[in-house]
Amino acid sequence: MAWSPARARVVCRIPGTFSLAHLEENVAAATLQLTDDQVAKLTATAHTTVAVDNQA
């Protein structure tokens, strides 16, 4: 949740949550201020392709 606003100036967060605990986590994430290095690492991770074996 903190990564999106670090990348764009206008962000509309629409967290889909079904529990109070998840809502509280999402609200807390909205207050985080990420460093440029953290944003770069998260961006690199977001652009990584992960292979998943659904045959298991």
From TrEMBL:
InterPro entries: NAD(P)_OxRdtase_dom_sf (IPR036812). It comes from the Bacteria. This is Aldo/keto reductase. The lineage of its organism: Bacteria, Bacillati, Actinomycetota, Actinomycetes, Streptosporangiales.
